[in-house]
Amino acid sequence: MKKSHQLIKMKKKRIHRNRIIVLFLVLFFIGSLTFIQVKLNNASFSDSQKVLHEKNEKLKKVKSNNKRLKISVKELKDKDYIQKWIRSKYFYSKNGDTIYNFGSN
Question: Rounded to an integer, what distance in angstroms lies between the CA atom of residue 81 and that of residue 87?
């Protein structure tokens, strides 16, 4: 009787020990998955931040270009500016302008 009681006690201890081992393994597995997921999220967040920074830089350039183009459109609507630009670009003159030729070196 004593031996069977000891065997039952040992069996219960073994079962209890196995349950604790399985519990720790499950917790370790869940912890590992959580750690991996956090690392992947950090990497994804870092990549997103880089893309956001690049897009913001591109947006600044586009806004600057847009501002420059709006100024050009405003200037092109001014007749005096157009006349000055055509005269300088294509060497045109107004009536009554005196033209001087300078020799080239």
Answer: 10
**Which residue, chain included where needed, has tokens 């209890």?**
16
**Angle (deg, nearest 10), helices 79-90 and 2-76:** 80
Enter the pTM of the model: 0.53
Backbone angle region of 91, left / alpha / beta, with phi > 0 → left and psi within -120 to 50 → alpha: left
3-state secondary structure of 13: helix
Average pLDDT value for residue range 95-104: 76
75 within 8 A of 81, measured Cβ to Cβ = yes
Which residues, in sequence order, are CB contacts of 99 under 8 Å at separation 6+? Answer: 93
In sequence order, which residues have a C-beta less than 8 Å from that of residue 93 and are 6 or more positions away? 87, 99
Name the residue with tokens 């931040």.
Answer: 49
